[in-house]
Amino acid sequence: MKRRSKISSVFAILAAISVLYFISSSGIYHSGNTAFAQSSSLTIISLSSDNKLIDEGQFVISPNPFTGTGNYTIKDNSPDDTEKDKDGVIILSGIENGNYNIIQINTAPGYGVDQIQKTIQVNNSSGVVTFTDLPTNNAAVTSSTSTRSVTYTTKFECGSIFAGEGPLRPGHYDTDISLFNKQRFQIQVLWNSVPNNSPSSNAILLKMDSETSKSITCQDIRTTLGNNNENFIEGFTIINVPLDSTLGGGITMTNPSSNDINVLDVQAFYTANALDILPHEVIVDKISFYITQDGSGKIPANMMQKTLDISIPSGLNQISDTEKKVKDALAKQYTLSDDDLAKIVIEIKDVSIGVGVLIDDHAISLSTVQPELGS
Q1: Nearest to 132 by CA among 91, 74, 88
Q2: What is the rounded distance in angstroms from the CA atom of residue 78 to the CA atom of residue 89?
Q3: pTM for the structure as a whole
Q4: Helix (H), strand (E), coil (C) string for the chain
Q5: Bridge partners, 101 (sequence order)
Q6: Whether 120 contacts 41, CB under 8 Å
Q7: pLDDT for res 135
Q8: What confidence tens digit (pLDDT) does each residue in 298-324 have?
Q9: Which of 108, 319, 349, 358 has the fewest Cβ atoms within 10 angstroms?
Q10: Total domains, the chain
């Protein structure tokens, strides 16, 4: 068995997201009318009950994610696993969209397989499922079918991308993971951050009273990782609710239904600025002018012979027609044709240069995180 990290270290590839556009009901939204599809991938994570990665996992996926028919068997670090440098993490890239049933058929020596089948929908996105394997010398494996924990796994994106160093476009990215305890008793939650290509953080304990909420923000994630700069980081948060114990509030679940296991409401809220370049200062021409004659009859009378002004973005070392800029603005505001503009006479009074800031164009997305059972 290859050496495992002290606490789980999970890498997953987030499909490239065009955040300026509407993509899906759980994706990034924007008012534009063009959509850019993501490539689909599936990540399978093998963990111990204390959130350590476990290698040598083997799984059967139905239907085959590459052909859409039959079954497909994948083993950790096998040729189709695109994440061979991370034991306990299998990534299948370029798969077809669809609903997949996944069962674990083998794991590392000394551990028992998670016998709970996982179902996931992949639709132009990166799907993630987690299996929890207990030591075979743990009496609970053979003497009880009670669930030991409920796990929520979600993606985080934090910081700024300034050029082409990441799969995402240049911009600012932020994540806020909200947890709501809908139970009528206190619950204690363990969570840790698992950044891509870096060691995971230590687990953080949250005590949540009945019907209260807490959030995990990018600042919290950076604090757990000792990362206090603004560099872009991405990865996963693993939120674990221990059950049938003092830590978990004494919840016991034997053969629970899918509704029973959703102990918390967990939602991930993402914001993004995805301009082609980051917001920056731009030069603005402020033009003062008069309308001295209007043969079109479309300019309001109270606008005539009055000092008016308009601010228009300008470029360095560019020759432009100031009068045409003003007339183009008037045409848009008052729906003027070329013939109308020819009948309008304006006089430029003054042109001054100012500095403005490019509007920070944001997009948002909200995703509900589904729970998974741990043995």
Answers
A1: 88
A2: 11
A3: 0.45
A4: CCCCCCCCCCCCCCCCCCCCCCCCCCCCECCCCCCCCCCCEEEEEEEECCCCECCCCEEEEECCCCCCCCCEEEECCCCCCCCCCCCCEEEEECCCCEEEEEEEEECCCCEECCCCCEEEEECCCEEEEEEEEEECCCHHHHHCCECCEEEEEEEEEEEEECCCCCCCCCEEEEEEEEEEECCCCCEEEEEEEEECCCCCCCCEEEEECCCCEEEEEHHHHHHHHCCCCCECEEEEEEEEEECCCCCCCCCCCECCCCCCCCCEEEEEEEEEECCCCCCCEEEEEEEEEEEEEECCCCCCHHHCCCCEEEEEECCCCCCCCHHHHHHHHHHHHHCCCHHHHHCEEEEEEEEEEEEEECCCCEEEEEEECCCEEEC
A5: 62, 119
A6: no
A7: 85
A8: 999 898 988 998 888 777 677 888 899
A9: 319
A10: 2
35 vs 196, which has greater pLDDT?
A: 196
CATH classification at residue 51: 2.60.40.10
Polymer length in residues for the chain: 375
Q: What is the largest CA-CA distance in the chain?
A: 94
Mark whether 114 and 161 lie in a shared domain.
yes
**What integer pLDDT is reported at residue 357 of this predicted model?**
58
List b or e across 299-325, with b for residues whose CB sees 16 or more CB atoms inside 10 angstroms.
beeeeeeeebeeeeebeeeeeeeeeeb
Boundaries of domain holding 314: 281-357
Q: What is the pLDDT confidence band of residue 6, given thresholds at 50, 70 and 90? A: very low
Domain contains 136: yes
